[in-house]
Amino acid sequence: GAVVSQHPSWVICKSGTSVKIECRSLDFQATTMFWYRQFPKQSLMLMATSNEGSKATYEQGVEKDKFLINHASLTLSTLTVTSAHPEDSSFYICSASLSRGLGGEQYFGPGTRLTVT
Amino acid sequence: QKEVEQDPGPLSVPEGAIVSLNCTYSNSAFQYFMWYRQYSRKGPELLMYTYSSGNKEDGRFTAQVDKSSKYISLFIRDSQPSDSATYLCAMTYGNKLVFGAGTILRVKS
After folding, report:
1. Which terminal Cβ of chain B has fewer Cβ within 10 Å, N or C?
2. In terms of DSSP H, where are the helices of chain A?
């Protein structure tokens, strides 16, 4: 149980274009989903928290107009990287929680590797 | 000073060894403590989840929390080459997870 999928697993795009990443909880309804990014040999950094049906809460320093998050249902959240630049190249990972994350348990997707050329 | 400190390693051990991985933290408000395993180019996988001080065992894994010292550990018994991965400690504050840097573990056969 508690399986989270992401699509695509990797994507290459040209500078200036937008990329959408999907995160789905496959066997449970996720009240809250989280988006992280991870640079090589570094730990995960939380970008934003989203609750179904409401606006995402972004961490300090994360541009909300650049990283658009939509949490349309209890099983799907999307992250759109708008006007991507090479410095946005990273590993993006989502996680899902049953309990708004208050219990701490988050189940992670396999990640999406974004390369912007 | 980072909220969660974790030695990045790498830590190399022979197959069958007991592995000890550790994290220290500075925020006494952290409530839940977790250990995740992450293979290269994959998402983290939850291994252990604890709340109170003390030990919690699950198969070859034992998680230990000492809230008075702000110190948590993960022990792996009879380590296997398949245990080679990055191990991340994480702790919660409200609904947010704060991760350590991760320790790279290499188990040599």
Report:
1. N
2. none
pLDDT of residue A29: 87
Contacts of B94 in chain A (CB under 8 A): 101-102
Nearest CA in chain A to B89: A43
Q: Which residues contact B2 (CB under 8 A, 6 or more apart)?
A: B26, B101
For the cut 70, the answer to whether the pLDDT of residue A99 exceeds it is no
B97, B101, B102 member nearest A106 (Cβ): B97
**Cα-based distances in Å from A86 to A9, A12, A116:** 18, 10, 5
Q: Is the pLDDT of residue A102 over 70?
A: no
Q: H-helix or E-strand containing A77?
A: strand A76-81
The answer to whether the Cβ–Cβ distance between A43 and B96 falls below 8 Å is no
Question: Alpha-carbon distance B96 to A104, whole Å?
Answer: 7
Instruction: Give the Cα separation of B73 and B45 in Å (integer).
Output: 17
How many interface pairs between A and B have CB atoms less than 8 angstroms apart?
A: 61
Asked whether B1 and B95 are in contact (CB, 8 A), the reply is no
Separation in Å, CA of B36 to nearest CA in chain A? 10
Token pair of A91 as six digits? 């590993």
Tell me the per-residue pLDDT of A26-69, one tens digit each, with 9 for 90 and over.
988 888 899 999 988 788 999 999 888 888 999 999 999 999 99
The pair of structure tokens assigned to A77 is 């959240």
